[in-house]
Specification:
Length: 280
């Protein structure tokens, strides 16, 4: 099987771990383990598992660092350490990617071996530490602008975002992991007070105007709602969310109906999580 494995730090710096100068040898990054709580059965042997969780985990990666020239070798070492320590200093996780799946993590330690004064190679065992030991693959659905607003459709006073019309645009999102999934919903301007109904629940914004080239993101993983303005500024619009239900409610497993007005470009990104990277 061919692997595409690389580390990308929180500034976007990418280190390919399958090609010179960084050659991945082995590691336990595919291993997984669940924590569990138990209670004792005092009437007989054994006990009962009460629940499962996951805590902070550390994994190992063994690399060979190699280059044709001394200058390239030294540059590779400096680039690697700078990429890892950027995340540490800024308290912002990088990502280890395996065939399109990623693990949010830090590189917290390195043990160097087999380095010699005259050789342009060495071995290093890296320690990867993750606060969230789940592999994630992102699946995105884009719903095109249709301009589908029927004659006589109603809008509540005070720019409340619901329009009722028989011209509602519909679509489908399919969520295939075993548990409810985190997501991002991206509303692209121009639009006022955008909203979408997914599986009967409303995810939307109130008293928010998005101009051309502006967009807003509802992120359930971070529980944030952010507006990205055309002048480059970023606004926290958490208090402008709709309140019928939590706009951070995760998406259940299965085929989910999507309804929106069709007046703007809408994107829904589903974060499918597994203990091991998905191979198919």
């Amino acid at each position: 099987m061919k692997y595409d494995i690389y580390y990308q730090n929180s500034a976007g710096k990418k280190l390919d771990l399958c090609n010179i100068p960084y050659l991945l040898e082995t590691g336990d990054i595919l291993d997984f383990e669940w924590d569990y709580t138990t209670s004792t059965n005092y009437n007989t042997y054994g006990g009962k598992i009460n629940g499962f969780t996951k805590s902070v985990r550390s994994k190992k990666l063994r690399l060979t660092i190699f280059a044709m020239t001394e200058a390239e070798y030294k540059s590779a070492l400096d680039t690697m350490i700078d990429a890892f320590e950027y995340d540490i200093i800024n308290r912002s996780t990088g990502r280890l990617y395996v065939n399109g799946n990623y693990l949010r993590c830090y590189i917290t330690a390195g043990a160097f071996e087999e380095w010699e004064y005259t050789a342009n190679f060495m071995s290093v065992e890296l320690t990867l530490t993750t606060e969230y030991p789940m592999w994630i693959v992102e699946r995105q659905w884009n719903f095109a602008k249709t301009g589908n607003l029927a004659q006589g459709s109603k809008k509540y006073p005070n720019r409340y975002p619901y329009r009722y019309a028989n011209g509602t645009t519909t679509g489908i999102v399919y969520q295939r992991c075993n548990s409810p999934a985190n997501f991002q919903i991206v509303f692209n301007g121009p639009v006022a007070d955008p909203h979408v109904i997914i599986d009967g629940l409303t995810y939307g914004l109130v008293n928010v105007d998005l101009e051309e080239s502006e967009y807003a993101i509802i992120d359930s993983f971070t529980s944030t709602i952010t507006k990205y303005c055309r002048d480059g500024t970023i606004e926290n619009i958490y208090n402008n969310r709709t309140r019928e239900n939590s706009v951070f409610t995760k998406l259940r497993t299965g085929s989910l109906n999507v309804q929106w007005t069709g007046e703007y470009l809408l994107s829904i990104v589903v974060f499918e999580e597994r203990s091991m990277p998905r191979w198919s």
